[in-house]
Amino acid sequence: MMIDADLTDYPASWFRIAFSADIAVGDVKIVHFFERDFMICRFGLSELAVINPYNSQMERHLGHRWKIVNNQLCYLNKVVNKDGLTCYPLQEVYGIVFIYFDMENPLIPRFSLPDLTILDSTIWPNRSRFRKTIATTVFDIHENAVDRAHFGILHPPAFSNRQAYFISQIKLTELSDKLLLHSHINVAIGPIKLRYDVNANYAGAGIGIVVVEGGLFSHSIVVLTTPITRKRVDIEYIFQTKKFPFPLLNRLLHAGIKYTVATEIDKDVSIWEAKRFVEQPILSDFDGPIAKFRKFFSKFYPKKTIGDLRDTAPCIASHEIP
Ligand SMILES: [Fe+2]
User: Fold this and answer.
1) Same fold, 13-101 and 117-296
2) Which residues contact 20 (CB under 8 A, 6 or more apart)?
3) Is the preceding omega at residue 157 within 30 degrees of 0, hence cis?
4) For residue 104, how far is its CA from the centre of ligand 1 (angstroms)?
């Protein structure tokens, strides 16, 4: 499994950096991701700019000295010529501000923002969000989906050890800059047998959309991952369920499923934070398509550099017994 990219570095992708509701007209906000600051300026309801505040016009920025006056950007009460500032490619959809971040080619996105109409769908009217900061990489978070073997070990009672063997093989279909994942899980509760179809899609390394349908409760999760540093990720889960017939039942079931999902994610966090990247892991037939998943993700990452300190040894070393 030789990958010629550095999966511990910053990938080139669309990333969530803010929510629209947090930036009123006239606001200037500094957010910190990728070990740098981004300045978000709201000139009008649909007029937004994300700017690199460290620019040729000034050696360093002071966040609170920036203002928008009469729809013009000012620094220390002087109007700044916007032409001299670097603006990141941005999209503001469904109340979320995304930028395209690319260390190598920052101004022209290699692919467009994926379809997020699931966030405005009448099929999924119950919505809630939860957020975490995790000491890991965006790659490790998304690779969880194809780590087929871990479901049975880490996620009971949602997936008991016995039921783990009923998780079907995970199929991946690659479409240009998008990866589609298909699988299903059979769950047996006594004589009742339930099937859950799992469909996910990944567009770049910043956005994953997971839909679990069937059985008793369908739900979807939009996973938005943005690196803060190379080993720290700000992750937002937008969790949605279908409408249940009675309002009280609707609220209770949404809260119950959300609690279960959040609890299972917490179990993953303890693994992600202790994980180390092994380039050539030893895999069994029961593992998911790890190599194919890594190959897809690698296209968004910079090439490896000489002196790369990653661990390339397999996780279990073989040796001869004397
Ligand atoms: Fe997991």
Assistant:
1) no
2) 92, 95, 96, 97
3) yes
4) 32
CA of 141 to the centre of ligand 1 (A): 9
As assigned by CATH, the class of the 117-296 domain is alpha beta
Q: How far is the CA of 161 from the centre of ligand 1 (A)?
A: 14
Chain position carrying tokens 């479409």: 175
Q: Could you give the CA distance from residue 239 to residue 188 in angstroms, rounded to a whole number? A: 25
For the segment 200-238, what is each residue's pLDDT rounded down to a tens digit?
Answer: 999 999 999 999 999 888 999 999 999 999 999 999 999
Give tens-digit pLDDT for 102-161.
998 888 999 999 999 999 988 899 999 999 999 999 999 999 999 888 887 788 655 555
Q: Please give the Cα distance from 27 to 195 (Å, whole number).
A: 48
Whole-prediction pTM: 0.88
CB contact at 8 A, 142 and 263: no
Neighbouring residues of 182: CB distance < 8 A, sequence distance ≥ 6:
170, 171, 172, 173, 197, 198, 199
Domain spans, the chain: 13-101, 117-296
Residue 167 is predicted with a pLDDT of 75
Assess contact for 232 and 133: CB atoms under 8 A: yes
Please give the C-alpha separations between residue 220 and each of 51, 127, 189, 208, 257, in angstroms, as whole numbers. Answer: 33, 9, 22, 11, 11
Q: Which range is most confident: 119-123, 179-183, 312-316?
A: 179-183
CATH 2.102.10.10 fits 13-101, yes or no: yes
Can you tell me the distance from the alpha carbon of 116 to that of 214, in angstroms, rounded to the nearest whole number? 21
CA of 144 to the centre of ligand 1 (A): 5
Residue-averaged pLDDT of the chain: 85
